[in-house]
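User: Predict the structure for this protein chain, please.
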Amino acid sequence: MRGQIRAQEREIRMLQRAGLSTASAELLLSRMRAKVDDLCRDREALLKAPHGLGHWDRAPVYAPALYDPATWKERTQTAVQRAGLWIMKLIEDAKRPLTRAELESILRKRGLIPENGSRAYVGYAVGEFVDEIVYLEALGYWLAKRPWPAAGYSPRSAKGVRGGSARTRRR
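Assistant: Here is the predicted structure, written as C-alpha cells:
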C-alpha cells in the first residue's frame, strides 16, 4: 500500500509539472494515507491487546533462511527442502520426537505445506534429509545425529529406525 502511495505521489508531481489539475488525485491520495493510518492503528491495538495475535506472537521467530547459502549445494531451495529444514528445526525446538500428524499440523499453520499438499508432503520433506532425520518406531521423527535413550536409539546403533543413512535403512 505504501508503494502505491509513493507511485500516486509521483504521478501527482508529473501532472503538476504538466500544468494539469490534480485535485481528484490528491483526494485519492489523502484517502489512501488515511486508510494506511487506520490499518497501522488497528495493528498496534492488536499487538497491545491482552490476547495478542494468537499463535503467531507466541511462536518462536526463525531466521528467513534455515541454511547457509555458502554451503547449500544446489544454491536454490525447493518448497519440500524448505519444509525438511523446518522439520529439523521444529524437532530441535520440541526436544522430542514429533509424529507425522504433529509436523503436518505445525507446517500447515505456518503455511509451509501448500493448500493442495497431500499428507505425504511430510514424508517427501523428510526424504530430502535421510541422513539428518530418522523415524523411531511408534514415536515419530527424530534427529539422526542425536541419541534418544527412551527408544534405545543412538546414532551408532540405529536400532528400531527407518530412514537415516543407507546402512540403517530397511530394504
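The mean pLDDT is 77.
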